[in-house]
């Protein structure tokens, strides 16, 4: 089932691994052309080479940029134009999730979370929107938020605050840019079965903690990366033409309320 994204030009940040990689691959499966952005050079090159072998040399290109630097955000947009001639979609997926007690968070750690999760997303969206406005064909921006944008978690005050900021940023930009045909939405994953997550489940304690987390989810499993990518494709496609300013939580029902029974439904 196609989303009608063939030949669209898409920027995906945080694309070297995990959810970002899955989103980039989903667009390539739709015959879009994708700029993969990350600061992890080795993994970025491995992913891009994998995609070029599978989809063709002219379908994917990579750029190693730190989006915490606003000047780097402009470089990403210009690189997309130089590579493929236009820009249709931006997916702001790059982010970090450190876990630290609120008594111990330092100013440096707090700033690092906000610089990447919020400032980077804003200035890249700004640079992309300027180009989309000038193209006069509109565009679509999808921010990756989190269930943490709406449901508090202990030990991640900076992360929860940053994702709440991403949610509000999505709403504000959707209001400002709708007149230019630019739709701005967010997808908020819950627990996702990435390779990084699986790699942490090597001890009985880690597996027990993972099962406990799943016990709070009515569907009782982690999301597949592809399921997060499907929501992004929807917001990037014409099927969501009348939707903007929304934060769609793809979380198996986690944010709807608490499930107290411990047995499998």
Task: Explain what the structure shows.
This protein has helices at residues 18-29, 41-55, 70-84, 107-135, 157-177, 195-200, 204-214, 225-236, and strands at 9-13, 33-38, 60-64, 89-92, 139-144, 182-189, 192-193, 223-224, 247-250. It is of the alpha/beta class and 265 residues long. The protein has one domain (9-193, 225-256): NAD(P)-binding Rossmann-like Domain (Rossmann fold, 3-Layer(aba) Sandwich), CATH 3.40.50. The strands form 2 sheets. The chain has a 7-stranded parallel β-sheet, sandwiched between helices. Strands 7-8 form a two-stranded parallel sheet. The protein starts with 8 loop residues before the first strand and ends in a 15-residue tail after the last strand.
Give the arrangement of secondary structure elements.
Blueprint: E1 9-13, H1 18-29, E2 33-38, H2 41-55, E3 60-64, H3 70-84, E4 89-92, H4 107-135, E5 139-144, H5 157-177, E6 182-189, E7 192-193, H6 195-200, H7 204-214, E8 223-224, H8 225-236, E9 247-250
Parallel strand pairs: 1-2, 1-4, 2-3, 4-5, 5-6, 6-9, 7-8
Helix pairs in contact: 1-8, 3-4, 4-5
């Amino acid at each position: 089932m196609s989303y009608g994204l063939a030949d669209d030009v898409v920027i995906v940040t945080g694309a070297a691994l995990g959810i970002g990689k899955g989103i980039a691959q989903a667009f390539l499966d739709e015959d879009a052309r994708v700029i993969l952005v990350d600061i992890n050079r080795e993994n970025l090159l491995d992913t891009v080479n994998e995609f070029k072998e599978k989809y063709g040399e002219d379908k994917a290109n990579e750029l190693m940029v730190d989006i915490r630097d606003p000047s780097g955000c402009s470089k990403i947009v210009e690189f997309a134009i130089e590579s493929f001639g236009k820009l249709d979609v931006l997916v702001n997926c790059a982010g970090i999730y450190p876990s630290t007690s609120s008594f111990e968070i330092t100013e440096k750690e707090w700033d690092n979370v906000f610089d990447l999760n919020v400032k980077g997303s804003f200035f890249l969206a700004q640079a992309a929107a300027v180009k989309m406005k000038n193209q006069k064909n509109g565009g679509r921006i999808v921010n990756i938020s989190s269930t943490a944008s709406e449901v508090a978690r202990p030990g991640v005050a900076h992360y929860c605050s940053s994702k709440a900021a991403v949610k509000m940023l999505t709403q504000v930009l959707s209001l400002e840019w709708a007149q230019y045909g630019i739709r701005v939405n967010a997808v908020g994953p819950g627990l996702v079965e990435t390779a990084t997550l699986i790699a942490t489940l090597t001890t009985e304690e880690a597996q027990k903690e993972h099962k406990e987390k799943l016990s709070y989810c009515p569907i009782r499993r982690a999301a597949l990366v592809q399921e997060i990518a499907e929501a992004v494709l929807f917001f990037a496609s014409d099927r969501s033409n009348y939707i903007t300013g929304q934060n769609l939580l793809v979380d198996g029902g986690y944010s709807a309320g608490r499930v107290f029974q411990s047995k499998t439904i």
